[in-house]
Write a structure and sequence with these properties.
about 325 residues; alpha+beta; Phosphorylase Kinase, domain 1; two-stranded antiparallel ribbon; about 40% helix
């Protein structure tokens, strides 16, 4: 969501002629995130978000945009892509794949309560349930194969103790398969800044560009690691319980998922530690970029390893 590719008002006005959205009034770069170029776009008929995809390829994007459209049509408050006059979601702008997304009102929050976490757990379960009928598939682009491939590039930058932890955890996760865990379309990045709130409720779920086909429990772990974590990396039990219980009421956990839960929490922490290390030490040039603190997820991973017996469990009610 940084501005890597500049778009002028004249260029955008010409590009928008293919969409039934009226004429351009204004555009404003969004200076947050590290993956894509985003602009707020206001036209004579409404407000939208323009996304230019900096890493994703044209052939990959139908999975993400199709999933967003699929979920929105089934009641999930997903950001919904706008179809052009020919019925497609994708175009090319300044040499990059580009899409126009309906703007969702609301704002994110930094200090969630147990009630907020319960609402997030419910919307995540609704997402998984609605996504179960989505036929397109996409391997996780930031799964174990990616961790292993980028680790040699990252290790030279790390302190010895961090390098040891990274190598040991990647090795540990490579021994854990869990092929019998339920799988489907997942968001894979449902952090606080990707959930919008208005009038005390969730008004939108955004940024599906890490979505993929993977274990549903992995998505739950990613979400818990952001919404329920304390500054020292430990999990707040009341928020964690609220999120898991709200999720379970819509999609109950299986016995295998309950057994795999501690490992999935570690896998989710590892994934974002690795990606933040990579973005921090090997950034791409951009006009407005914000690499996030890698040590945050190092703390979470270390906490999960040290406190495995204290982690909130996926306990079914009697």
């Amino acid at each position: 969501m940084s501005v890597f590719t500049t778009v002028t008002a004249e260029e955008l006005a010409a590009w928008l002629e293919r969409y039934p959205v009226g004429t351009l009034v204004s555009l404003e770069g969004i200076a947050a995130g590290i993956e894509n170029t985003n602009y707020f776009v206001t036209t004579s008929q409404g407000r939208f978000v323009l996304t230019l995809f900096e890493k994703l390829k044209m052939e990959e994007l139908p999975f993400y945009l199709g999933l967003m459209d699929h979920l929105a049509d089934r009641g999930v408050p997903s950001a919904k892509p706008v179809r052009d006059r020919s019925g497609g979601f994708l175009g090319t702008l300044n040499g990059k794949p580009a899409a126009l997304i309906n703007f969702l009102a609301g704002s994110d929050l930094n200090e969630p309560t147990a009630d907020h976490c319960a609402r997030v757990g419910a919307v995540l379960a609704d997402t998984h349930r609605a996504g179960s009928s989505y036929e397109n598939k996409m391997d996780n682009p930031r799964g174990a194969r990616w961790w292993k491939s980028v680790m040699p590039e990252i290790l030279p930058f790390l302190r010895p103790e961090d390098a040891v932890l990274l190598e040991e955890e990647v090795g540990f996760q490579s021994l854990c398969r869990f092929d019998d865990l339920p799988q489907g379309a997942i968001h894979a990045d449902l952090f606080r800044d990707n959930v919008l709130w208005a009038d005390g409720d969730i008004s939108g779920v955004i940024d599906f560009y890490f979505a993929c086909t993977d274990r549903l429990l992995y998505d739950v772990a990613i979400t818990v690691n952001d919404w329920c974590v304390e500054p020292d990396g430990t999990l707040d039990h009341s928020r964690t319980h609220a999120l898991l219980e709200a999720y379970r009421r819509i999609r109950p956990f299986t016995a295998i998922e309950r057994g795999a839960w501690p490992v999935m929490l570690r896998a989710a922490a590892l994934r974002f530690w690795v990606s933040r290390l990579y973005d921090f030490y090997l950034p791409r040039p951009g006009e407005l970029t914000h690499a996030k603190d890698p040590h945050h997820f190092r703390r979470i991973l270390s906490s999960h390893i040290a406190r495995e017996r204290e982690l909130p469990q996926l306990v079914e009610p009697l």
